[in-house]
Design a protein that fits this description.
mainly alpha
Length: about 100
């Protein structure tokens, strides 16, 4: 059974209080995921996606995921898989646009 998070430890509340830059990689991903599953919060799911069990690259794991690989993870269905894939693509485009400016 999930234990209740303190209000100040919840990613949404933390972002409101301190800004997005204060969030960890897993907290940012949890905000994008919005919900977890029965027995697993969005934050726990995000932490799992960024840990070594899904690759050894932390935040760079996101770029290595395919829809099939994501959907094989408990708690990731079609909608969450597409959200993560679109987040990855958006990050790539932002990096590319930033490199062009620099």
């Amino acid at each position: 059974m999930m234990k209740e998070m303190l209000k100040e430890d919840r990613p949404y509340e933390k972002c409101l209080e301190m800004g997005a830059s204060a969030l960890s990689d897993s907290e940012l991903l949890a905000v994008m995921l919005r919900t977890g599953t029965k027995g697993q919060s969005a934050l726990e799911l995000a932490q799992y996606l960024l840990n070594e069990q899904c690759g050894n690259e932390g935040i760079l794991n996101i770029h290595s995921f395919t829809q099939e690989k994501l959907k094989a993870i408990k708690g990731i269905g079609t909608v969450k898989a597409i959200q993560i894939l679109c987040l990855s693509e958006l990050a790539k485009r932002l990096a590319k646009a930033s490199a062009k400016e620099g």
